Amino acid sequence: MEKIISLLITALCALPSVAQNDDTSNLTIQSTIDACIAMRDAVAAGDTAAIRQSSVALRACNTVDFQTLQGATLTTPSLNGHLVFEEAFADSLAAGKNVYDQADEMSRTRTVRGQTSDGSILTKTCFVRAGKSAKYTFESAGHQELAVVAEAGGLVTMKIHVTNGNGLNQRYNDTKAVKTGLPQRQRVFNLPTAPNSNVELEIINCSKKDCSFVIISN
Fold first, then answer.
1. Looking at residue 217, what is its pLDDT?
2. Is 105 in contact with 126 (CB distance < 8 Å)?
3. Residues 187-214, mean pLDDT to the nearest whole number
């Protein structure tokens, strides 16, 4: 009996390694979330000064391209005509340039610049059609913070499914306003430090318009 109790205690103590942490009050990605929201709102309002401020805030976050994020389909929908959550895009808008028809090119240019391994926040602007969903995968371990911010008018829901070679099979789906969607989402959860887990991220566009969105990760 003592052996069984000991095993149960050990199992319970191991749970936090894959447990969800709903405390989003002190996220390392919070400043990036705020900067992306500020950029979206400033662009929607046509406030040039606010767009410049959001660009400065986003640049201060030292974000880099989320290159390990892979789309589930071979074809990538065009971002042209939609907002790219990147400081160069904001700078161009603040300067009075209409760069919406160059969204794909500006997004590709950022990808080519690559990413660093200094703990920078990862971001990537993606696209989903009205009423449809888009799926992405990436590998992760340890503490994971994820957020999605949609462009103005976009309403999204986020589904997260995590698996690994040791049998981990966990879901960290949104539970609030899942049918109507929200302008932005964020989730925090802890994964085993080894082996790496495969994270499948599904973004559902609940609105009646196509929209771009940015995925943010620590």
1. 97
2. no
3. 96
- Euclidean distance between CA atoms 125 and 149, whole angstroms: 9
State the residue for tokens 């340039």.
Answer: 97
**DSSP assignment, residue 96?**
T
- All residues at 6 or more sequence positions from 162 whose CB lies less than 8 Å from its CB, including other chains: 18, 140, 168, 169, 170, 171, 172, 189, 191, 197, 198, 199, 200
Residue 18 has pLDDT above 50, yes or no: no
User: Could you report the per-residue pLDDT of 52-71, keeping only the tens digit for each?
Assistant: 999 999 999 989 999 999 98
Residue 163: CB partners within 8 Å, gap ≥ 6? 169, 170, 197, 198, 200
Which residue, among 137, 158, 155, has the nearest Cα to 66 in the 3D structure? Answer: 137
Angle between helices 30-45 and 87-94 (to 10 degrees): 30
pTM of the model: 0.86
CA-CA distance, 127 to 61, in Å (whole number)? 22
